[in-house]
Recover the amino acids of this structure.
């Protein structure tokens, strides 16, 4: 009988500590400005080429993440591999409720390489590390 009581007391304490730790981590993520966001997960384009033949635009897509703590996304598109101000073609702040942006096909040249960069920005202004991908446009 004593073993059963000790088992249930130990189990109860373990559950209490586990739930307290989870609640602390969730609360800390929302309140701690030093707590960084993970980089967003890119969906498309993430391959070496993007074929936009016959299309009106190229749609960039990513997976939502941490919607409760994300204020907006910082989207940037560069011509070439270098992500410098000289190569910046497009810079947009997109609401946290979106996971895509369409860029007109007329902005892209056949055979040219482009790089897109995406960051999440928290409600407290903390930016995640960047996710990025470079791709060559096919446009016949």
């Amino acid at each position: 009988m004593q073993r059963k009581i000790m088992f249930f007391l130990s189990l109860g304490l373990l559950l209490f500590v586990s739930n307290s730790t989870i609640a602390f981590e969730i609360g800390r993520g929302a309140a701690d400005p030093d707590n960084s966001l993970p980089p967003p997960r890119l969906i498309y384009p993430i391959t070496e080429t993007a074929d936009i033949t016959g299309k009106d635009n190229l749609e960039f897509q990513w997976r939502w993440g941490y919607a409760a703590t994300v204020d907006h996304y910082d989207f940037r598109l560069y011509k070439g591999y270098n992500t410098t101000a000289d190569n910046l073609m497009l810079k947009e702040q997109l609401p946290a409720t979106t996971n895509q942006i369409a860029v007109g096909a007329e902005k892209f040249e056949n055979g040219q390489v482009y790089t897109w960069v995406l960051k999440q920005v928290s409600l407290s202004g903390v930016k995640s590390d960047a996710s990025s991908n470079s791709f060559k446009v096919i446009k016949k």
User: Anything to note?
Assistant: The two ends are 79 Å apart (CA to CA). Strands lie at 41-44, 49-51, 57-63, 70-79, 88-95, 100-104, 113-122, 131-138. Residues 13-33 have pLDDT under 50 and may be disordered. The helical segments are 2-31.
